[in-house]
Amino acid sequence: MRKLKFIDLFAGLGGFHLALHSLGHSCVFASEINEDLRLLYKTNFGIDCDGDINSIEIGKIPKHDIICAG
Questions:
Q1: Phi, psi angles (nearest 5°) of residue 37
Q2: Which of 6, 16, 21, 59 has a CA-to-CA distance to 45 between 20 and 30 Å?
Q3: Which strands make up the sheet holding 5-9, listed edge to edge?
Q4: How many domains in the chain?
Q5: Which helix or strand (DSSP H or E) is residue 42 part of?
């Protein structure tokens, strides 16, 4: 199976991340507006979530195959 790269927008607790990672895919970017959930995401997955998606420059988002939006 081809390994895909995904971004996790409005990441929340990371349900999409958990599912796609279990299939062997990798998260290349995540954003979540809620600070407590960003800290939990970092604890669970080792990835720093960016904050409000409205304040993120489009060029900062890496190339990806899948967009997850919770």
A1: -70, -35
A2: 59
A3: 26-30, 5-9, 66-69
A4: 1
A5: helix 35-45
Read off the pLDDT of residues 11-42 as tens digits, 9 standing for 90 and up: 999 999 999 999 999 999 999 999 999 999 99
Domain that holds residue 35: 5-69
Q: What is the pTM of this model?
A: 0.92
Q: Mention every residue, 6+ apart, whose C-beta is less than 8 A from residue 6.
A: 16, 17, 20, 25, 26, 27, 28, 64, 65, 66, 67, 68
Say how far apart CA 14 and CA 23 lie, in whole Å. Answer: 14
Q: What is the DSSP letter of 5?
A: E
- E strands within the chain? 5-9, 26-30, 66-69
